[in-house]
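Late entry, written up from scratch paper. The run itself happened at the end of the previous shift, but nothing got recorded in the book at the time, so transcribing now.
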Amino acid sequence: MTTITLIPDTLRVTFTTGEKVAGLVRDQAFPRAAVTEADVVPDGLGAVRGPRAPGLGLPRLRKVGTWRSGRGNQLVSVRAGRSALRVRLEGQRWAELLLDVDDPAALASALTPAGA
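Output as recorded:
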C-alpha cells in the first residue's frame, strides 16, 4: 500500500516495490504549497479518468500508474472496495494524486490548505 509522509514543507509519496514495477512509477515528493485541495473519494477505482499511460489497469480490481485526461494527469494507486485520498496539485507534473492509503480522512484533513 502506498504511504504518504508529511514533512513540514513536503508531501512525500512512497510506493511499494510491486506498485513501482506494475505501475512504472517511482517515489515522489511535492511541495505542500502545491496542494490546492485534498478529500476522500469513496470509490477510488471510479474516480480514475482517461486512458492509462503508462501503468497497470486490472478492470474492477486495481489501477497503478499515470492516467491522462483533459483535466491533467493523475498519479494513481487504487484498488477495488477501498476509498482513496484525492490530492489536487497546482504547477506539478501531475494535476491530481489518487491514492489508496491508511486513514485517508486524516490525511485529507492534514493536507487541506488553511482557509480552504
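The mean pLDDT is 93.
(Scratch paper discarded after transcription.)
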